[in-house]
Amino acid sequence: MSRSTDWSVRRVHHPGVACLADLVGDPDSFIADDFSRRVCCYPGIVDPTFLADPERLWGDVLTGGTRTPALRIVRQGDTLPRQRYTRSAGIGTETVDDLIQPNRVLELFDEGASLVLQGLQFTDPALGRLSNNLALDLDHPVQVNAYLSPAASRGLDVHFDYHDVLIVQLAGTKRWRVWQRLERTRWPVRGAPGLAAPTLEELGQELGDPVLDRTLQPGDCVHIPRGCPHAPETVDDESAHLTIGIMALTRQRLIERALSSTLGAAETAALVPSGSLSSSAGGGDVLKLTATEAAEALDALEDALSGDSLRRLLAEAVWHRQPATRLRPRRPPPLTDDTTLAVMPGPLLWAERTDTAVTMGLGDRRMRLPVEAWSVVRAVLDDQRATFRIADLAAELSTSIDADSLRTVISKLACEGVVAGG
């Protein structure tokens, strides 16, 4: 097996876009003490216009060609059938049946329904960049939803989420009541038994007093850990807020991914013999591995859950769920030795060297380079200089790679959008 001998990463945030510090103040303290642990409120911490304009969100829904499930409409705890606000239409030779009827959406809003704009990290470029900045800070996938609610309304009943959320009030006000986790929701996993959301009747019996009962103003941010029941409602005016979901990348999920990737190549992938359910088949003996087979399977799993293999597993688990906010240039950029380059912002850049090749993760895809390219790739990722010249890099690495090969590697990085003229 080719084992990783080197690992390198580079995080370049999108400039002019909020990062974790803009929402919680001290990101190191938040991650160490609060993240997924306790309910926190950060009053007036961010200028809401720095994140999103509610009127632009309304415009996207009504005139931007939004389709379900990017829009969901809820009222008094129920999700309304999409047939109440969508229609069919022909596009080319195909028929789609989920086009939004904007005037019907407005009617439902006037009748007390709330609009839920889902997966905005994929449909709104600015919120896609926000999502990736936060994922760079947290090493967890991040989704962004928006809620547009009329006055005196309750879109959702009391419920808990299977992931942490950051609530940011954009406009208007909304009252939030949040309770401590129940014992049965301490580490909630979707589909696990006994995790039904508490009903309103259970509030006094099981939940007790809320740890937070606050009407959020524009610019306020609240962190709600996964498993904490909460109940939002508008009071006197309309409300617009972002729900930033920090998706739960758990040890269980990493183990499942490791099992899938490693045991599939082991003897465990062999068929169970036919007739194994017969009374004379020896019960579970047909599933037993030999000592050698079991040792090989465990060695493969241990290797996948340690060191650079685990880092690769984690990087892939996070970034395959994130938007592609670093794009390849449409045309290969011209490069000379005097070209000044910068690493472009976007998804995490990671690279590992095995004894046979260099693999580089770009977020939504990988690129593979010869092992001789490692010194260049590592210099680009490890060097925190804002810009660099190709000629300077060639001089610094002259003992590990020749100038022509270095130019070839830099050209490949430029063609993939990793570096560009700075």
What's a concise summary of this model?
The chain is an alpha+beta fold. The protein has 13 helices and 20 strands. The protein has 3 domains: 16-246, Jelly Rolls, CATH 2.60.120.650; 251-270 and 288-319; 326-421, 50S ribosomal protein L16 arginine hydroxylase, Chain A, Domain 2 (Malonyl-Coenzyme A Acyl Carrier Protein, domain 2).
Task: Write a structural description.
With about 425 residues, the protein is an alpha+beta fold. It folds into three domains: about 15-245, Jelly Rolls, CATH 2.60.120.650; about 250-270 and about 290-320; about 325-420, 3-Layer(aba) Sandwich (Malonyl-Coenzyme A Acyl Carrier Protein, domain 2). The chain contains 13 helices and 20 strands. It starts with 5 loop residues before the first strand and ends with a strand. The mean pLDDT is about 90.
Task: Summarize this structure as a short list of keywords or feature phrases.
single chain; 422 residues; alpha+beta; Jelly Rolls; Malonyl-Coenzyme A Acyl Carrier Protein, domain 2; four-stranded antiparallel sheet; globular
**What is the CATH H-level superfamily of the largest domain?**
Cupin
Which CATH architecture of the largest domain would you pick?
Sandwich
Q: Strand-residue fraction?
A: 15-25%
Determine the structural class based on helices, strands and strand pairing: alpha+beta
